[in-house]
Amino acid sequence: MIFYHVDVFSSKILSGNGLTVIFHEEDMSKDYMQAIAQEFKQFETIFLRQIEEKRFRARIFTVEEELDFAGHPILGAMAVIHEKLFAEERNITAVFELNNKSLQGESVKKEGYFQATMNQGTPAFLGTVEGESVNTFLQALNLTTDYLHPSLPMEVVSTGLPYLIVPLTSGLEKARISVGDFEEQLGKVQAKFVYLFDVDRMEGRTWDNGGASEDVATGSAAGPTGAYLYKWNIFNATDDITINQGGFVGRPSKIKVFADQSTGDIKVSGDVKIIAKGQLLI
């Protein structure tokens, strides 16, 4: 099996969000894929099996679990498909068949890197958090109402994975997950993960639900955050949005979000730098 190591949401080496992309021809069990992902120890690993010329079955794993969808693995995979299979073409599109949906990606070859885009589809707004639940989440995140944006709600938004968007005006550097049952708390509001977002700085943070590992740049959160910002008129629907992330872990990244003007679908874009290629001898 051939694998690539790429940095997503950066055009420079050793920046952005690292990812392993693995090509395989035969079916593999979920447990086997999980073990390989644990071996690489990236925040996420994506497995690709080509089923048509530009259509791929894709499965995404963290070191802990399989995800039905994640953002930066799709963008990184899109660039690797371009490099490995269609290197002579300047622009390509491909379709990814995920566990619960299919989505289309695009890649444009730049000077020394790729610019990849994915269509995350129509956003779903799953409800706001109100009353005492606001304080419960803030306490779990080591924050108080002093840091919360005064006119924007906490809201669960999904473009594939449901995120609890927590809008802040300050305090992002103080935030951390400080309780052991945070995943259970999120489940009560139909969220899978949390995304803290400083509206003034246009900067976000998120972690695994145990708080042990901070993600560098989160495409699956950028889509819901962009949809949230459009909904609450922080940006016009015709505006491009740039989200900053990764500065707190020394891997500054930029994620571009924009809305398709004909469909309303949310698209997420980022630069991808390929830095390594190898072979799994298993």
TrEMBL record:
The gene is yddE_1. Keywords: Isomerase. It comes from the Bacteria. Its EC number is 5.1.-.-. The active site is at E44. It comes from Anaerotignum propionicum DSM 1682. One of its GO terms (molecular function) is isomerase activity. One of its GO terms (cellular component) is cytoplasm. This is Isomerase YddE. The keyword Isomerase applies. InterPro entries: Phenazine_PhzF-like (IPR003719).
